[in-house]
Queue: 2 jobs
Job 1
Amino acid sequence: MLKRAAYYTFGCKLNYAETSAIENYFLHAGINTVKTGENPDVVIINACSVTKGADRRCHNLIHYIKKKYPNTFLVVTGCYAQLYSENSVEIDKIDLLVGLKEKMNLLKYVLKKKKGVIVSSIGKTKFTYAYSYGNRTRSFLKIQDGCDYTCSYCIIPSLRGESRNGKISDIVKSVKKLFEKGVKEIVLTGVNIGDFGKSTGENFLNLLEKLDEVDSIGRFRISSIEPNLLSDEIIEFVASSDHFVPHFHIPLQSGSDTVLQLMRRKYDTELIKSKIKKIKFLMSDAFIGLDIIVGMRGENNECFNESQFFLENLPFSQLHVFPYSERISSKALSINQEVSSIEKNERCKKMIVLSEKKYKDFYFSQIGTKHTVLFENISNGDKMYGFTENYIKVETIYNKKAVNQLFNITLGGWNNEMTALTLNF
Ligand code: SF4
């Protein structure tokens, strides 16, 4: 009899939303989530496979689980399962491996303790709804899945299938339910959310406008949006909205046009410059996070220096730096010129140094300014933390009553560790 389950999630916000939905199905079936110190009867690993590092983390966890809980029923799902299927090097330790098409039907197989591999090609798959409802403050809401783009370094489209999305009317219902449950911030997530509307004949701006009409004190954060899909209308909409926060996460990937072409991205650095200029013109306090891949095949020293120079002159707040990772069957493998891992590490270090400077400069520019902070149930000793609408981390004295509450505040100086700003009373 399966009484208790444990869940492990790797990868994107979409995966966290899907794990939370799966956990809800299990809870409704009477399978509780383990508490600290309890042994799980079943373990669900929702694994990512965007890089070799992600695969390694999944392998290590499978070893750890099998060693710690030898009798547990181990289930692996997610992009890792879809990519490797029965070829997973850990297949002998996995009781049930389930691909993306059957991912949200896990419960029925687990209840039967069905063993084996259930992976089929993703093909045309219907959209499945999901949202996370873990820490009660912020929820990841899945609005879109799959991708029709062909970026040369990426295999996600072959794993998650064609771009598809939920209906605006259903998403509005989920949003109302989450706000009624006390959630104060909803993060719209997917694989390529700017492409929202493909399978329902709607579009992303339509969705934002409808969500903005929902009567609530809550706020919305757009998780990540492709530069070419971040239209001027969307930027203007966010600038005039009371609910959508001035925080943009943009997967730029490189500041070199040569490398962007090798990556088969759908924009150039001119477009990036114009988008960021418009954001900063309409929302000078906006937080702009950029994803950057270093060491892509074909990225010679000249291209890297070009990318670094471009970024040095761009008003962004933070970089998420990823070393290029070879993916089975990706188109990038046909590009001859490889970058050594030593060189990749060097380039990562340079980009991280640049990011830290931009991050500190952005935080300094916010000291003394007025914002709205949402305190979370995160504490460290007598301290608690929250984020402003423009994604500034704020630290203050722990107060239980302040958890999951929105406050209008003035930002003070850095905390001792220079990891957050304090409140200016
Ligand atoms: S937009 Fe490009 S990088 Fe992103 S999921 Fe689609 S193919 Fe991959």
Job 2
Amino acid sequence: MGLEFIDISREEGERVRANGTTGSRREPGGGRPRPVRQETSRTIRYENQRARRSEVQRQVPAQTQRARRTRPAGERMYSEAEERRREYNARNRNGNRLQNENRSRDNNRRNGGRERSRNYAGYNNPGGNVVRRPRPVDPRVQRERMRRRKIQRQRVMAAKMTVLLGFVLVIFFTGFTLYKLIGDFTKSNEPQQTFNSYTPTVERREVIKANETNKPIITEDFLTINEYSRPGEKLGKVKNIFVHYTANQGTSAAQNRSYFENLGITGETSASAHFVIGYEGEIIQCIPLDEIAYAVVQRNYDSISIECCYLSEDGKFTDETYQSLLRLSAWLLKEYKLAPDDMRRHYDEGGKKCPLYYVEHEEAWEKFLSDLEQHIMKNQV
Ligand SMILES: [Zn+2]
């Protein structure tokens, strides 16, 4: 036929033939190399190329490699332009990878991902004098490209995760702030609804510090220990002082004390208080201050209770009762290092209408608290 084979490299000539590959061939007498055999298996061809390259790389330093790649003019299998391109590509691959990557990315952007057609001779190559068949992609390049894509994907993923994390943080923070705001709002509303809107004119601590109230005149007449009014159980740390009314119009302090005393005999009900203030201002102590009274169901173990007598039908205290209540309360607050806002109506704990007048007249109760504060400040030594 007059054709002769040109193998890809002289060293592997034998192997190429053994694999049944023909490689390229040229017309006798030189001329342009031309791809001939369509049936040539791309895979085999590339495996051969790969094998050759890795072999060469293993043995020969890069410079020699480059030198070898440029073959004498007669034996070139590519056009000069293509050789230059290949040389350039090879240099870029081995040399400045970053630059190469940037260039590829720019190209990608510019020609809409047709990087491939630019870097590898093929259909879109404007040189024109090269093999017009698309060359299959070198697996090494492919691998490199996949590696780059993977990195790219990882970067995108990382960016997405960062944004997501940011969102979650913002949502969490907003939620937390809202929750806190709502919490503060309800908290600041609570005491107004449950207790009172009494606002101390002086700092709580100052009132406590200023409180030098002496013990008022108190008649100690303790009940006999019994299961219904004086159980004799130990009182814990006092947190509040409760004010009650006897719910028995016109009765005296002594009468009410007797009523508690009699409960121990009749067993009619459980009730008592540490103090009873009569409508003439007299104060009777029924239970020692280290024992509990049966006065406020939930709070018997950490509070002290004061019963107040009254004459008026609406339950309003007489002025004498009121003044005695101020003195007694002020002294108790001093003893337990509490402030006027630690005073409570029975009503505040459980909703019972006690003391009636000061439940139905909220402002009267608030006036009592501010009177108490002034009483304490006046008594300052
Ligand atoms: Zn009560």
